[in-house]
Every structure is written in C-alpha cells, then in structure tokens.
C-alpha cells in the first residue's frame, strides 16, 4: 500500500518539457543521450553532403511553393546532394518527395508535436526526436547548406540559428538561400533597416544569405564553393 502511494507522488513529464523539474530529470538524460547516439550513428554513415530544407508544415499540395520545393530538392539530388528536412507534412514533405523521386537521399528528422507534425512517407532515412535541441544539433552538424521556403516560427528559428552559428564562427560558412521574394522581402528590409540601421549587425552579415525566386537560382547556389562534408 505504501509503495503504491509513493508511486502516485512521482510526477510524470508534463506538456512543457523545460519546466519539468521532477525526480525523473536524471533519467531523462539517458533519453537525451540516446537521441544523440541514434542521430550521430545514423547521420555519420551518410557519405554525401546534405542540404537542409525548411518550410511550413501547413502548406497545401496545391500551393505554388510546394511544387517549387519539390523541384529544388530534385535539382539538388542531380547536383550530388541529399536533402534533410523536418520530416513532416507541407513543404517538408515536398522536399522529401522531390529528393526521393530522383532516387536521392531523403532524410526526415521528425519530432513529436501537439499538432500538425505527422511524418511524411517520402523520407527514406527517417529519424524521430522528442527534444528540439537534439534535433537542432543534428541539423546543423550534418548540413552543408540551407534552403528556407516560406514558413512560420519554426522556419524563422532555423534560419536565424544558421545565421547566428555562421556569424559567431561556430560552424563553417555555407549557403543560406531564401526562396520567394514576395514572402521574404519584408523580413530582409527589416533586417537591413533595423538590425543594420541600429548597428546591431555588420554590413557583411547581409551577405550570409541570398534571396531567389526560381528553382534554377536556388540550386545554382550550391553548384560551387560549398563545404562538402
């Protein structure tokens, strides 16, 4: 009876993972370590450079950017690259689909979310994560470039993390391509007017990324001068 009461006192993981300060914290480290080990073991076996493609999970298949993402991924495979995405629906699905259609390496780093994140069927190397920070490390460690399609907060998070790691010389510089001037122009103008205007970044930081509209220009950014890992 006493044992049952003690078990009831043990809190389980709640919704907000960073607020979970329960007895099980020390054991959670083994789950985190396990995710790193699985990620490192799987990705270290990849022998071609990977381009990370980010974009909204909510984009429908009839959206023009779905087709563009699919074509960019196919073009990257033809250039000798593999593609790695968040493994979910929308533009992630489009990128995985485009790579798989060319018999290319199509990696999906899926994560458990309360909504919208179901793994797509086009990732031929799927990995599943519980912790965002582990997934982020895998993305940045094994990517040789980034393509950002129109997306939401997650896409912006990945974009600015990539820019920050390059700016602070934590990773080697690689191409960062934003696709869709109509979507990205407002953000780029704000970066130029506010971040640069207030002296919070340098002029050379604006050269860390490029903005394109078409498939050929996006793929061409990876045709030369890339750090092939």
Uncertain spans: 4-10, 225-229
Note the beta-strand portion. 5-15%
Remind me, CATH topology? Rossmann fold
End-to-end gap: 58 Å
Describe, in plain words, how this protein is organized in 3D.
This protein is of the alpha/beta class. It has helices at 2-9, 25-44, 64-78, 91-101, 132-142, 153-167, 181-196, 215-220, and strands at 50-54, 82-85, 106-111, 125-129, 146-148, 176-179, 210-212. The protein has a single domain (47-220), classed as Rossmann fold (3-Layer(aba) Sandwich). The chain contains 8 helices and 7 strands. A 7-stranded parallel sheet has the order 4-3-2-1-5-6-7, sandwiched between helices. The protein is globular, with a radius of gyration of 19 Å. It starts with a helix and ends in a 9-residue tail after the last helix. Mean pLDDT is 90; it is low at 4-10 and 225-229.
What are the main properties of this structure?
single chain; 229 residues; alpha/beta; Rossmann fold; 7-stranded parallel beta sheet; 8 helices; 7 strands; globular; disordered C terminus
Fold topology:
Blueprint: H1 2-9, H2 25-44, E1 50-54, H3 64-78, E2 82-85, H4 91-101, E3 106-111, E4 125-129, H5 132-142, E5 146-148, H6 153-167, E6 176-179, H7 181-196, E7 210-212, H8 215-220
Parallel strand pairs: 1-2, 1-5, 2-3, 3-4, 5-6, 6-7
Helix pairs in contact: 2-5, 3-4
């Amino acid at each position: 009876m006493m044992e049952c009461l003690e078990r009831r006192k043990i809190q389980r993981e709640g919704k907000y993972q960073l607020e979970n300060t329960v007895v099980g914290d020390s054991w959670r480290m083994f789950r985190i370590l396990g995710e790193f080990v699985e990620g490192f073991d799987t990705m270290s076996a990849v022998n071609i450079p990977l381009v990370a493609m980010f974009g909204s999970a909510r984009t429908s298949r009839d959206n023009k950017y779905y087709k563009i993402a699919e074509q960019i991924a196919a073009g990257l495979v033809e250039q000798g690259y593999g593609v790695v995405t968040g493994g979910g629906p929308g533009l992630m699905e489009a990128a995985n689909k485009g790579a798989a259609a060319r018999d290319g390496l199509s990696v999906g780093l899926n994560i458990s979310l309360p909504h919208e994140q179901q793994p797509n069927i086009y990732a031929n190397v799927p990995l599943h994560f519980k912790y965002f920070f582990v997934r982020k490390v895998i993305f940045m460690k094994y990517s040789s470039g980034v393509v950002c399609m129109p997306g939401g907060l997650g896409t912006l998070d990945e974009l600015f993390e990539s820019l920050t790691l390059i700016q602070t010389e934590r990773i080697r510089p690689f191409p960062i391509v934003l696709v869709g001037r109509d979507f990205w122009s407002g953000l780029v103008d704000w970066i130029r007017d506010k971040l640069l205007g207030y002296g919070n970044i340098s002029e050379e930081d604006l050269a860390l990324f490029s903005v394109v509209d078409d498939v050929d220009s996006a793929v061409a950014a990876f045709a030369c001068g890339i750090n092939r890992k």
